[in-house]
Design a protein that fits this description.
CATH class: Alpha Beta
Distance between the termini: 33 Å
Strand order of the largest sheet: 3-2-1-4
CATH superfamily: 2-keto-3-deoxy-galactonokinase, substrate binding domain
Number of domains: 1
Number of helices: 1
Shape: globular
CATH architecture: 2-Layer Sandwich
Number of strands: 4
CATH topology: Nucleotidyltransferase, domain 5
Order of helices and strands: EEEHE
Length: 58
Amino acid sequence: MKYFAGLDVSLEETAICVVEETGQILKEARAASEPEALDALFSTLGLPLERLGWRLVH
């Protein structure tokens, strides 16, 4: 199974959505837009992400 993550990044907060290759949503979360907070969130997933995409939100 392949897993993908999408991030909507703003200055203060990042919205994260993790899906499997069929499109089923596995997790939706929000974290501070800081490397440590994002790393902590992805570490708890325990999934090998195939690809990560992001966009900046104003």
